[in-house]
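The passage that follows is intended for readers who have already worked through the single-chain material. We present the inputs for a multi-component assembly, then the predicted structure in tokenized form, and finally a short commentary. You are encouraged to pause after the input and sketch how you expect the pieces to fit together before reading on.
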Amino acid sequence: MTTELFIQYLMAGITYGSIYAIVAIGFNIIYNTTGIINFAQGEFVMFGGMIAISLLQYMPLPLAIALSVAITMLLGALIEICFIRWLKSPSVLRMIIITIGVSIISREVAVHIWGESIRSLPYFVGNEISSIPVFGARISPQVLWVVAASGLMVISLGIFFKTTSVGREMRACASNRKAATLCGINTQNMVTLSFVLSAGIGALAGCVMSPITYSQYDMGTGLAIKGFTVAILGGLGSSGGAVAAGLLLGIIEAFSVSVVPLAFQDAISIAILLIILFVRPQGLFGSKEAAGLSEV
Amino acid sequence: MKKIASKLLMAVMAVSLLAVPAFAETIKIGAILAVTGGASFLGGPEARSLEMMVEEINANGGVNGNKIELIIKDSAASPEKAISFAKQLIEEEKVLAIIGPSTSGETMKIKNICQQAKTPLISCGAAEVIVNPVASYVFKTPQKDSFAVKKIFMEMNKLGISKIAVLAGNTGFGKAGKSQLLKLAPEFGIDVVEVEVYDKKSNDLSAVVAKIKANKDVQAVINWSIVPAQAIVAKNMRQAGWDVPLFQSHGFGNIKYVEAAGAATEGIIFPAGRLLIAESLLDDHPQKALLMAYKKNYEAKFNEPASTFGGHAYDAITILAAAIAVGGNDREKVRDAIENLKNFPGTGGIFSFSAEDHNGLDIDAFQMMTVKDGKFVAYTGK
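Having made your guess, compare it with the prediction:
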């Protein structure tokens, strides 16, 4: 394998990997506060991209993205308030089924609003054919935006959870909900906040990846499955784990192309997931309890 | 005087009450289309075209004075749903004929059902197996995929291209196209040196592009899919700074893909029906008038560009209407009438059906096209 080809595969892997990682982080935030997997996470990504594309007709790109993220956050809050909050001591299974329902409804709403066609945001810099040479390989400038955006999100989330009082309250809620309530933390608001946060992260991801992968009303499902794989692989609840696992999975997928036919790409990622579940059920980086942002 | 007038009025009313049901009946036509789901870019325009045409036919007084009632079922590209809808339309709704399904896979599942129920089926699926072997009640309007393959290879022969890479999506359309490409390549002296199949949900193909780019023998790439990935292939190739010719299937005939991939689609070569370049056809071309009318009406009504896929449904309903004009509300007579249609201009080409040919189109239904300045134009060689 030439260096050029190696770098090309590596960059493709990092692109996929960053996207998977962002979706996985969205899963983790909600998992940490509620203990459930929000299967509508992929739909947040879809809404982020789609809303920004619609808004773009009326305003410049940065504003459209910012507003789209804000609207999606509001949607996240609405979903939590309408479907989760009023449940009295819900079982985890029930909440998971609710999120699956929300995901189906969201897709139907999206297909009615935007139709079935594919759309995309314009490239933030350059256009479809511009590329930057990196050690002989060529990558799209948008890849750098995706990588930078995911990096920034991980770092700012880390700071948020470690240093701000709201962040600490969310972590408290994660490690022991009852104790947190006794300390005067409004755990219900923390759950809403976790939906808002993960909706925002998903929406931002949906915007930065839209020029590369396009946005379509049903893009969420595929992303949710990959993101879920990565979240499990990295250890549920661990943001750092999600990033590492996302990059790992992306890079393995990219390099697998050189040895096995492309059609087996998904089979490889699922096989890895199975092996991990057999050998290290808590994930690569998760603790045995696999809970709590305190572990990050 | 007043009495006479009112009696006259009553008489007229009575006559008209009697007359209306005696002369006009409603003809039920079923349609099974993938309006939502993975093939919605086919089913969406198809359903809209059907609605528009049925509205137009009824506004003009129907077929021989009979109104058409259209029943559209959304299969979401699921063969299971297509089967149950086909049974429902035939047994409960007792439709005269069925238009659709949108995809080849669904069509193959209901081919026998319609044949056994002696209900004419006009499919919008592309694969050749739908009409080969012929089932007497099953027709299809899209051009055969083998013609698209031959058209591409003929163009490659002209350009002196002999070593190619083939990419295909893992849909029914992609698989059928790939096997046709591999089967017909030797006939044209073309050597397929790389073959890759990708998932229909793929959203980045830069790794596989890097792989085939590394094979220095490849002179051109053919991509065969109906999914957004065909725009992604184009982008990833150009981003990798690779400028060999990229050929696509007739599935590329949707201007939305060009809009989505922008500059990366410049120079893509593909075969398609003439709908896409209707404006540039000569005025005496037999398809020109109807293509322009369909395009204008569709775009005005739905505010989106017309695609060849919607055209397949347009062809199906106009063929069916022409057959009903001859055969009336009788399944068998309508079937015979379709088989006897000759030189019938549609969006896909000039249809001439026969007992052996239930597609009715020849290879000239395809025109090689390319993308220039974000628009489809006829391809005229280098």
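Commentary: Chain B is about 45% helix and 15% strand. The radius of gyration of chain B is 23 Å. How closely did your sketch match?
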